[in-house]
């Protein structure tokens, strides 16, 4: 039997209750990794602040939990460990990294995916910046960009000491084109990309890589619910033809984590579609989904 490519990998995936984080964690598990699955939603206590988005999606209960994802990681072949963490709270983040150091003795991969931008989404994505509520700024920056920075600050000393590691941030990027209609979103994603770049410059001499990964339009639980369908029937909705599963992003992260030459990619933003062609992986339906580009 072939040795799983990430059998010895210790990873943290933040914001992994659902969506892209869940897809990443499960694919890391399929590659053999031990994954600390973090987020605020547990089976017993779903995260708060998603009321508007749930109402628009027609959901009575918030989908997903860190417990569910951790179980999927283990079922896929890895080891999933659920840890409830509010990534806006620095003390909780510090406790997470101290636990990983205590239990595993190292950290090979941090995936920064925790994102608060959906917590204030009012159903309007495209509007002049003066019409978007400032609450969206707080959600995207204070509970989005800052989450990535705080986690990276705790990961960096561990990785510098061992002189290896990868910090991967999920983002959105379309070749530096303006994300028309949402200045706050454009600024937040640009900040994440620059954050990954800046971290890469400071960690390069220590043998630690930092990069950003941009998926296309993912069929998350909220997207499927908003279109009144599920993963088994999404093809019946023509509007979803350009979508990809969250596992596609997960396969991109797993390929990067297994790449011994990943330092060559440090400091840049990489689209999942481009990585699929380079590494030869497909989405769960066997397609290599083209990059999502702004019309």
List keywords for this structure.
Rossmann fold, 295 residues, 9 helices, alpha/beta, globular, 41% helix
Notes on the protein architecture:
The longest helix is centred in the middle third of the chain and has 29 residues, at 134-162. It contains nine helices and seven strands. It has helices spanning 19-30, 51-57, 66-76, 90-104, 134-162, 183-203, 221-226, 246-258, 272-279, and strands at residues 10-13, 34-39, 79-84, 109-112, 165-170, 208-214, 269-271. It has a single domain (10-279), classed as Rossmann fold (3-Layer(aba) Sandwich). Strands 3-2-1-4-5-6-7 form a seven-stranded parallel sheet, with helices on both faces. Helix 1 (19-30) packs parallel to helix 3 (66-76), helix 1 crosses helix 8 (246-258) and helix 4 (90-104) runs parallel beside helix 5. It has 295 residues and is of the alpha/beta class.
Number of domains: 1
Shape: globular
Radius of gyration: 18 Å
Distance between the termini: 46 Å
**Helix proportion:** 40-55%
Examine the coordinates and then state which fold CATH places here, giving the name of the CATH topology: Rossmann fold
- CATH superfamily, by name, is NAD(P)-binding Rossmann-like Domain
| CATH structural architecture | 3-Layer(aba) Sandwich
The CATH class, by name, is: Alpha Beta
The tally of beta strands, per DSSP, is 7
Organism: Pseudaquabacterium terrae
Pfam family, one: adh_short_C2
Protein name: SDR family NAD(P)-dependent oxidoreductase
